[in-house]
Amino acid sequence: MATPKLDIELDDAYQAFLADRRRQILDRVSAACSRAGRDASEVLALAVSKTVEPEACLLAWRAGWRAFAENRPQELSRKLEFAATEPEMAEARFDAIGNLQKNKINQVIGRVALLHSISSSELACAVSKRCCAHGIVQPVLLEVNVSGEQSKSGFSPAEAREAVEALAALPGIRLEGIMTMAPRADADAARRTFSGARELACELRARTGLPLPTLSCGMSDDFAIAVEEGSTLVRLGRVTFDPAYELL
Fold first, then answer.
1. pTM (2 decimals)?
2. Angle, vertex CA 244, rays to CA 76 and CA 187, nearest 5
3. Residue 89 in 3-state DSSP?
4. Pair 31, 224: CB distance under 8 Å
5. DSSP secondary-structure letter at 150?
6. Which H or E run contains 235?
């Protein structure tokens, strides 16, 4: 089922909202970095555009956003095709963040800056095979279920430790780090999840000798906590695009 689109007017007022909300978000990222003794330049904010039409991405671009993300290959294609018709968006970055079915791999590889959701060794091998067939090297993240919630997909931390060296050796993909999601509406659990992801990333660096620079965690409700715990990439949908979302 496609994600319902926001009912918004794509006008000058909405573009002004996008610019103001972006400033608020970056202020909160900067404040979280200060609390953690980090530099705000270490954190990239992705505008997750799954709930808006392609034209809203253009307004977001004009409001200062440069990196976007989609969770469905069909919608990713629609946004990429639109961006290709807008010369000012020629340098726009798009990532793929949702669960990836094997029959959709060809719609994603080579088209995104980063694939966030390698959730199993089987999927990693399938992506590797397709990338090799197309002469592509695709940067990827391992999706790790740090919180242990049954509703979430991905490697368990133990599985990630066991598999990471073999996955890092696969041709056609370049392992860049890990991605995780925290339980909703529980700040303490979110902090434990994000700190656990940071610690796991350190372990995987030691096992592989790779820099694994990307820690993708933090969304609209918990991105400040994620930044405090070491996230280098936050995925922001509702907080970016929905005027009804209250940024507390």
1. 0.95
2. 85
3. helix
4. yes
5. T
6. strand 233-236
Residue type, 141: L
Around 62, how many Cα atoms within 13 Å sit in the side-chain half-sphere?
A: 14
Q: What is the CATH number of domain 12-241?
A: 3.20.20.10
Q: Provide the angle, in degrees to the nearest 10, between the axes of the packed helices 12-36 and 54-62.
A: 60
Q: Distance between CA 5 and CA 207 in Å, rounded? A: 42
Rounded-to-integer distance, Cα 219 and Cα 92, Å: 20
The dihedral sign for the CA sequence 146, 151, 152, 154 = positive
Pull the structure tokens for residue 72. 């469905």
DSSP code, position 206: H
Number of Cβ atoms within 10 Å of the Cβ of 88: 10
Say if residues 163 and 201 touch (Cβ distance below 8 Å).
Answer: no
pLDDT in tens, 75-111: 999 999 999 999 999 999 999 999 999 999 999 999 9
pLDDT in tens, 116-143: 999 999 999 999 999 999 999 999 999 9
Which candidate, 99, 108, 92, places its Cα nearest to that of 145? 99
Which residue, chain included where needed, has tokens 């793929």?
A: 96
Neighbours of 167 (CB within 10 A): 20
CB 186 within 8 A of CB 217: no
